[in-house]
Amino acid sequence: VQLQASGGGLVQAGDSLRLSCAAFGLTFTSYVMGWFRQAPGKEREFVAAISWSGGTTYYGDSVKGRFTISRVNAKNTVYLQMSSLRPEDTAVYYCAAKRVIDDYSDHGKYISWGQGTQVTVSS
Q1: Per-residue confidence of the chain (123 residues) as pLDDT tens digits?
Q2: DSSP state, 25?
């Protein structure tokens, strides 16, 4: 299983950015997909998760209303659309996969991880 995250970059506060995560070597529709982030000196934080079909989504409190997770199963890809970005959103963003939706916010329950993509938001 391989997950490849991309789309990070340097943006200004208030800007938008879309992250992508392409999955290889797995039956994509059998996996719940999640996004996490980790800032320097901080623990890994849950950002968003999406069910196998894409019909159910979950968000961390700090991103609700600003970020949107989606997936295109035909492309084996999950996206994270980020809007109204803030300096505190600065972090390395990781995509991850797990088999069931239970404990979707627990990073320890995910079985596969991408390499991370850096998002930096300047004030």
Answers
A1: 899 999 999 999 999 999 999 999 999 999 999 999 999 999 999 999 999 999 999 999 999 999 999 999 999 999 999 999 999 999 999 999 999 999 999 999 999 999 999 999 999
A2: S
